[in-house]
Structures are given as structure tokens and as C-alpha cells.
Amino acid sequence: MQIETLRRRLRALGANPRHQYRVLRLWSQAKPQDDGPRPIENFLPASLRAALPDIARDLAALATLDAEHPGEDGSRRLVVALADGQLVESVLMPTAGSRQRAPTLCVSTQVGCAVGCVFCMTGRAGLIRQLGSAEIVAQVALARASATVRRVVFMGMGEPAHNLDNVLEAIDLLGTAGDIGHKNLVFSTVGDPRVFEALQSRGADQVRPALALSLHTTRADLRAQLLPRAPRLTPEELVDAGERYARLTAYPIQYQWTLLDGINDSDEEIEGLVRLLQGKYAILNLIPYNAVDDLPYRRPAQEAAVAMARRLHQRGILTKLRQSAGQDVDGGCGQLRARAVQAQPP
Ligand code: SF4
């Protein structure tokens, strides 16, 4: 279901924009419909009041908890059932020990994914279907029923750029009625010109999310092998586009680098990163890979990852070595876990 479908249903029941906002606010913040000093029944049209229980039931059915897997690090992986029985994952990330992070939820935007990154389990199955904008918000509402969420990262299953309209519709709702700060909404992508166009053209009065770009290597040829169906932007073009958006919004771009032992941890890559990112308004997140059965990629030794982060830091690149949240839980999406991260000091 799309948020616009829900709005149409509310309008047909006589809801004006203020009524719609109220219903959407309570849903996206997982608050009961009678929350607040003035019960909602007092000022909604009678037709809408009568339909509220049905609407609440339909919204709750969009995303239900199929299973929950707690991690030793305090993360909680939620296996979420959609109304048609498809499963996606959301991850609630721990905040204990983190100095700056708001309580964060990582959400999925597609069932499966068409990008086919060679190190990712989700990519192996291809794209099964898009999530509707309401299904994306429903993951937040579901998580908020049992936890505080102040930051939402679109880094779960799927490539948000391939479901752009629905992801932006969900972002608009979460950044307004959902009460999530705009820079705490993080749009993650392998880099797609349509994303840069759509985000760049947003006015200052619109929700402008922060941006995370999956870089993974500074070599265009290696990037084409690792991300076989990502748009053919060179690393330089990706960073140029990211820098324009960072300057527009005044939030740094987060460059994601899944660290693969012996593949993208060489001296050549360190030099490439210094060349690409020095002086840029950027944070580099090094995320040691979570090895997945049947895939030939390995996680580098912790000391090697720490040394790489330190060398980059010394060369002026703001680098964070991040630990994957929920490493000890057996997730269906290797990269969901690999990107669901908490900061560690370099
Ligand atoms: Fe898709 Fe992300 Fe997996 Fe790549 S890493 S295949 S973009 S879900």
C-alpha cells in the first residue's frame, strides 16, 4: 500500500489535511489513536471516527513481527512479514556505548535486490518486489511499538534508488508527521544519477535526507565487478555528485566501504581514497565484511582493519571503523548485517 492510497481513503471519509496529519502522525509514531490531551474522537468527522478501528487494523497488518533475533551487542533483528507473506528485515541498533548516535532503525526498501553485489546474499536472489511507501513506514511503526527510534537508515534489503518514489514518499512522511530529524533519515545507495537529481532539486522547505554512498573501491574496474548491475558512475563521478549534495545540505556524505580481505584493503586503495576524499565534506565508514557461507569473501583481521582506519585518519580522511550490529545472529541478508553498524573509534 502507498501512503497516497491511505490519504485518499482518509479524504473519502471526510478527513481534511489536519485530520490526515493527525492519523498519519499517530500511526508513524506508534501512538494510540486516543493519545494527547484531546481525544481524536472529539474533532474527527463521524464517518472517519467510525472507520478508525478498520484503518488501524489495516495499517497494523502491513508489517507484523514474524520473528525477532537479539544480538549479543544489543541489536535486535526483526523479521517482518508483509501482508502477502513476503519477509524483509529491520534491525534496531544498540546505542549503549555510542556517544552521538540516536536510537536507530535500519529498514528494507525492497524484497530482494537487482544490483547483485557479489558479496551480498540479498543480491543473489534478484528483485522479488518493491515495497510500497506505507510498508516502509510500517516497519518504523512496528519497531516503535517496542523501542524508541530517532534515526532511520534505508540500508536494509534492497537498493532504495530502484524504488525511488516510494522511498522518498516514506522519507517525507517520516520527516514530518513521523518526527524524525531530516539528517537522521539516511538514504543509502550504490549511486544513481536519478537519486542525485531528485535530492538536489528538493527545496529547503522539503525533507532533505542525509546520503550514504556505497563506494567499496576507488577502482572503476573493480567496482564494476563487485557491483555488477550498479549504474556505471566512476568513483570520481560518485564523489563529485556526493560533494555537491553535502554542500547543499550541510551534512557530510557517508561513504560506505565493505572491507573485504585481500580485495579492497590494499595500499593502492588507501592512496586512491586519499586522492578522492581529501578535503571533501565526508565520513568514510569502513565496515569489516561478515563472512557468508557459500561466498568466497573473507573478513579482514581486526588489527588490519584498525591499521587501515588509522592510516587514513593520519592522511586527513575522517574514517570510522564500524562494527556490524548483530554479527552473532544468523541473518538472511549478509549485507544487511554488514551495514547495520555502530561506530567504533578508529
Ligand atoms: Fe542490493 Fe545492497 Fe545487497 Fe548490493 S549490498 S545487492 S545494493 S542489498
Task: Please outline what is shown here.
This protein is α/β, with parallel strands linked by helices and 346 residues long. 36% of the residues lie in helices and 20% in strands. The longest helix has 17 residues, at 46-62.
Task: Note down, in words, how this protein is organized.
The protein has helices spanning 3-12, 17-28, 46-62, 121-124, 133-144, 164-174, 193-200, 220-226, 235-249, 267-277, 302-314, 334-339, and strands spanning 63-70, 76-82, 87-93, 104-106, 110-112, 127-130, 151-154, 185-189, 210-214, 253-259, 282-288, 319-324, 341-344. By secondary structure, it is α/β, with parallel strands linked by helices. It has one domain: TIM Barrel (Alpha-Beta Barrel). An eleven-stranded mixed beta sheet has the order 1-2-3-4-7-8-9-10-11-12-13. Helix 5 packs across helix 6. The radius of gyration is 20 Å and the shape is globular. It binds iron/sulfur cluster (SF4). Iron/sulfur cluster binds at residues 113, 115-117, 120, 122-123, 157-159, 190, 335. The site of iron/sulfur cluster has 12 residues, from helix 4.
